[in-house]
Design brief:
Elements (H helix, E strand, L loop, with lengths): L1 E4 L1 H19 L4 E7 L3 H10 L4 E7 L27 E9 L3 H11 L5 E10 L11 E6 L4 E2 L15 E3 L2 H5 L4
Parallel strand pairs: 2-3, 2-4, 4-5, 5-6
Antiparallel strand pairs: 1-8, 7-8
Helix pairs in contact: 1-2
Bound molecules: xanthosine-5'-monophosphate (XMP).
Length: 177
């Protein structure tokens, strides 16, 4: 697999993002809501750099489930969410592809009485966004390729890699490996 972003690149950028977020919120308490499962590495690294009072919540949305081109049906499990009424919420996801997932989740969270809502993604795929969605913080723009590592998976594998790599066609085309 071709490494697109090294572990060092990612760590440096996540620390920068944390500084920018802390500057913008200026000490206000926030609730970070991570979109499972891909957000886990990004969330864990970001919060350890984030000098703000904060709570963490998670929500589950569906992912690509092994197919690299078509999204599966979106499932949202709100029971994993803390009470968000009056909270400043930062919605965190690993990757912005078409934007459908985050647009849907943003609408959902807006109905829960949040004080404010911003969005942070580690990666944004260039030229893919269909949904009109403003993203407040983004780590990297990447080319339109299927990527794995640092939380991102193919068939639930490769999430543990400390870097982001482009999934090679041999792997994507060989089932059961
Ligand atoms: P949308 O299209 O709604 O998709 O912005 C966002 C979700 O799709 C998954 N996704 C990927 N997962 N490598 C992955 O492992 C990729 O290149 C990729 N592109 C999209 C991901 O779950 C994301 O939250």
């Amino acid at each position: 697999m071709k490494i697109l972003l090294s572990a060092d690149d990612i760590q440096r950028r996540v620390a920068e993002m944390a500084r920018q977020i802390a500057d913008d919120y200026r000490g206000q308490p926030i609730t970070i809501i991570g979109v499972l499962t891909g957000c886990l590495m990004f969330l864990a690294d970001l919060v350890r750099h984030l000098d703000l009072p904060l709570r963490i919540g998670l929500l589950q949305a569906s992912s690509y489930r092994g197919a690299t081109t078509t999204p599966g049906a979106l499932r949202v499990q709100p029971e994993l969410l803390p009470d968000l009424r009056g909270r400043h919420v930062l919605l965190l996801d690993d990757i912005l592809d078409t934007g459908q997932t985050l647009a849907y989740l943003r609408e959902h969270l807006q109905t829960l009485g949040v004080a404010s809502l911003r969005i942070a993604v580690l990666l944004r795929k260039e030229g893919r966004q269909q949904a009109l969605l403003h993203v407040d913080y983004r780590g990297f723009d990447i080319p339109d390729a299927f990527v794995v590592g640092y939380g991102l998976d193919y068939n639930d594998e490769y999430r543990h890699l400390p870097y982001v790599a482009v999934l090679s066609d041999d792997i994507a085309l060989s089932p059961g490996t």
